[in-house]
Amino acid sequence: MSTTIASVQQIAESGRWHIIDADGQVLGRIATVAARLLQGKHKPIYSPFMDTGDHVVVVNAKTVKLTGRKEDQKIYRQHSGYEGGLREERARLVRARHAALHRLGRLQHVARSGAAAQVAQGRRFA
Questions:
Q1: Which of 35, 74, 83, 109 could join 70 via S-S bond, C-beta 3.0 to 4.6 A?
Q2: Does the residue 3 lie in any domain?
Q3: pTM, whole model, 2 decimals?
Q4: pLDDT, tens digit, 9 for 90 and up, residues 52-76
Q5: Structural domain of residue 40, as residue ranges?
Q6: Of 33, 17, 36, which is closest to residue 25 (Cα–Cα)?
Q7: How many whole angstroms separate alpha carbon 10 and alpha carbon 100?
């Protein structure tokens, strides 16, 4: 059995757009589906070192659900790199702040980048 590697032309021809409706769906479930589509793991031409993924658009991101008490307990952390530069924010506040700024995908962005592989290809999704 021979091993084949997808050509650039095959990758370009296989690129598709996917629309995911997040209305009432659980955040982590949407993130894993989006990460798989972005990486291209659903395709027979998948290679871990090549970008064989598709484009993903998540609609109704404002109405995504967090299960249990994660709305109040989940903490998003950012560090500036300086001493004492750790900022922490609860999911409820992140959602409220980004909704006011018309950027509704912050929770999905963090979840999707966490669901992707932690290698060079996965870091491109961040």
A1: 74
A2: no
A3: 0.73
A4: 888 888 888 888 899 999 999 999 8
A5: 8-119
A6: 33
A7: 42
